[in-house]
Amino acid sequence: MLLTPLARPGAGDALLPIAVLVMGGMILTLAACSARRENPSADLILTGGTVLTLDPAAPEAAAIAVRDGLIAAVGDDATIREMAGPSTRRIALKGGFVVPGLIDAHGHVRSLGERLHSLDLRGVDSPDEVARRVAVRAAELPPGEWVTGGGWDQNLWPDKTFPDHALLTAAAPDRPVWLRRIDGHAGWANRAAMRAAGVTRDTRDPSGGSIRRNDRGEPTGVFIDNATDLIENALPRPDRERIKSWIVTALNRCAEVGLTEVHDAGISEEEAAAFRELADERRLPIRVYLMWSGMDGAPLDRLLSAPPLVNHRDRLTLRAVKLMIDGAMGSRGAVFFEDYEDDPGNRGLFVMEPDEVERATTLALRRGYQVATHAIGDRGISLTLDAYERALRAAPAKDPRLRIEHLQCVREEDVPRLKRLGVIASMQPSHATSDMYWAERRVGERRGRGLYAWRWVLDAGVPIAAGSDFPVELARPLIGLHAAVARRDLKGWPEGGWHPDQRMTLQEALTAYTEGAAYAAFEETTKGRIAPGYWADLTVFSADLRAGAIEDIPRAGIVYTIVGGAIVHEAP
User: Fold this and answer.
1) What is the model's pLDDT at position 12?
2) CA within 20 to 30 Å of 36's CA: 185, 410, 512, 536, which one?
3) Whole-angstrom Cα distance, residue 462 to residue 223?
4) Is the sign of the CA dihedral 360, 361, 366, 367 positive or negative?
């Protein structure tokens, strides 16, 4: 309307200056709007802290600006404050310590959620106390419901031997009881649970598993590795909504402890569907990297027929397969070249035969999926590397990033093979400080040099992706960081550290929980650093972890957990 006098022939000259001024004002306004679009204000700024970026171009800073879920700028307080606008949320760090969002590269989300809703037996120091807690729980439940739980560890008990069903049967004679061992590779059932599962003295040991029996041949109630499926398959099946509630509970707990992403090491089709629904409902508080479970006769050919799912709804990725060649040391199922020192004649159990690992790896590589194989004993690790090498020849992949999960007792001569084959070491630091009380009794001093050998791995140039294996261990990365740099328990034992030559520096440990874990998920260009263009995934501690004593690390406060610029946990 205001431009009309200029366009109309014969209009008076007196109108021209007004029209020009109006036009000039519009041009200036459009230019200002354009400038704002090119450099809009930040959605979030954090100032007044110490930022460890892990970006070689700018290793430390004081402040961060976030826009549209990404890091917009990293720098000094004055520069970042200039990026604030009327709607910018401002966080004064007050000396807090910011690191790239921590990642747990090996956990079990559903299991953690389920554990948080059942009996937690971690640290219980006798089977009698387990039975007492079972009796209390049984009295609280409605008729017909199973007592479930986990976390027991016979190594903490006075006689350090596997239990018998009799204690649980007496505690809950008419109600099935099923309690998983702390490592998830064994379980303890009462008579009612074995009856529900149809287990008798005539039940044969399944391939890759064993049923513990007494001297009369009767099942004692302890089931190891694949034998646990006998009881697991008899458990009442939870519906989709219950599985989703377990997942949300677990991920909220992970956010509370500073985690911005977890890698779930082995999921079923039902769990995959639950994760997908939660992502679509925008109910996943943190990022999740999923691995199909490739064990127990999983239909891999069908599961891998669909292409990998990457960053669905800015939260969910499914592009890996979890395999398992052996069991765990705690239940003497890890596979070794020589007998267990404390169990002559036993060299462990193959959960999957090596040729099965090779076939599954070859199939996955051809379909564009990563493979992560649980391998704990020295022979299990070596045979997994053999299987990987053959699979890579059969199905060459441009960037396979094969992983070995745990790598708990490795031969020194096998470490260079990790580097040569491009294998990522997915290791859990707190396993070392949980297992150090008994691990060397299992393998002896000579083999014990390769227990949780982080230094060997790092010095060979192999990336470590750090995690916890929750709920086997607590889902608390601060405990893992402390274990990595101290190799001592939370009481400071042993003085000087257990096999201290294998310790990481704090910088190396933080890198393993950030860049290393991001690389293991093909995310190193978007996650694992604090730099412009990276996802705004941040973990904020109350103080600089580098400034205090090593013993102070587990007690550091988590002030904020931020995922894609959204605050998913804030300390009260």
Assistant:
1) 36
2) 536
3) 36
4) positive
